[in-house]
Amino acid sequence: AGRYSVRQHICYSLEMGVKVKWKSCFIVFVFIFVNLVSGMFTKRHCSHVHPTPNEVVYGVHLEPAHVMRKRNVDQPLRILLYYDFSVYRLDKEKFELINNTVLPEAVHFWEQALMVRKTESIIRLNRKCENNQVFYRKGDPYSYCKNACEEKTMCGEVQVPEQHLEICRTCNATGMDCGAADSKVGEGIADADFVFYVSAMQTERCHKGLTVAYAAHCQQEAALDRPIAGHANLCPDSISTKPQELEILLSTVKHEILHALGFSVSLFAFYRDSKGNPLTAREDNGKPRLNEKLQARQWSDKVIKTVVRKNWVVHGEVVDREVQLMVTPKVVDEVRRHFNCSTLEGAELEDQGEEGTALTHWEKRVFENEAMTGTHTQNPVYSRLTLALMEDTGWYTANYSMAQYLS
Questions:
Q1: Catalytic residue status for 247
Q2: Which residues does the entry assign to the active site, renumbered to this chain (predicted)?
Q3: Averaged pLDDT score across all residues of the chain
Q4: Which partner for 178 in 11, 100, 171, 254 could form a disulfide, CB atoms 3.0-4.6 Å apart?
């Protein structure tokens, strides 16, 4: 009986030892798993869906082109935020984070980093036309809708308020009998160069991947094609109020704002040189040629050029690799300076991923933690390269003292 008791005790002790070790291993495993998952959640992919030509209102008249061209690009960018009611429906903690910290800091960064030709006049946005049918009359700075304007003018998920809109101008089906329809001229937007309509709706796009926010422009002015209105939607379920995730959230919002201001497939074809001349040829309608497949205006090789890299080694095989390079002047200067290589043709754009990643970001394997790559990682920076691109739009000059170091 005694031996049985001892044996039973030994077995029990061994069993306890195994249990203790198993629990220790389990705790270590959980710790590693949590950290891995946490790391995964800091790597968020941007799925910028560029607006199609039918979603953008072109030709908003602010001032004559010859007046705008002569103006110096020295006005610090002024961004007006307009909240949709959905923003006020966020819970208190999220609203305070977005309203008091994230949006003010993100907007302030770009207001310090970019300068524009000052908008002297009040901005009144154009009304959307039914079926996107628009008439332009020679010598007339305003556009006219065929038969009727849409009842509502949307910018992303947000309805543009009546006080921000021009009067509805229409012509009949033959382009005759043109004039002002039965609507009022809005007060307009004073002391601003760009109006940003912000919503907070849990849309279908919010359920895709780890989407925190997305943004795009919705209207462009007539003289130099600069985007003057855009929208951003914040995905309520993806907004984290954890202090350790603030940096990623803030960088994400800065990133999305830049898509609306100029870094977008839908805007490349509208870039201009430092004198205001288009880098891409225009058709009779005043716009660049439409790329039907991409559903965007096609840019010229003065903006993006396709280059074939010879003898590229992939998985032990030597192949020719086709890359897309941003080849605008200041971008070329910056990428050559960064890599200390005077023969680089340009800065490589992302060619992998879904529609929202390819071409609308810098190539991740080349530029790593640059914030305008397609994957948000820790320690994101907005470098001289990104500021150079914004300057090469022809709409901005950059304050390079705001640039962050890119390793």
A1: no
A2: 256
A3: 87
A4: 171
Q: Is 255 a known ligand-binding residue?
A: yes
Is residue 234 within 8 A of residue 214, CB to CB? The reply is no
CB atoms within 10 A of CB 218: 24
Is pLDDT above 50 for 39? Answer: no
Residue 20 falls within a domain, yes or no?
no
Q: Which of 55, 166, 256, 363 is catalytic?
A: 256
Identify the pLDDT of residue 26: 42
pLDDT (0 to 100) of residue 353: 60
| pLDDT given at position 358 | 77
Question: Is 45 annotated as a binding-site member?
Answer: no
Please count the structural domains in the chain.
2
Lowest mean pLDDT among 39-43, 125-129, 236-240: 39-43
pLDDT of 297 > 90? The answer is yes
Q: What is the pLDDT of residue 303?
A: 98
Q: Are residues 364 and 248 in the same domain?
A: no
In a domain, 50, yes or no: no
Q: For residues 304 and 345, state if they share a domain.
A: yes
In tens, the pLDDT along 265-274 reads: 999 999 999 9
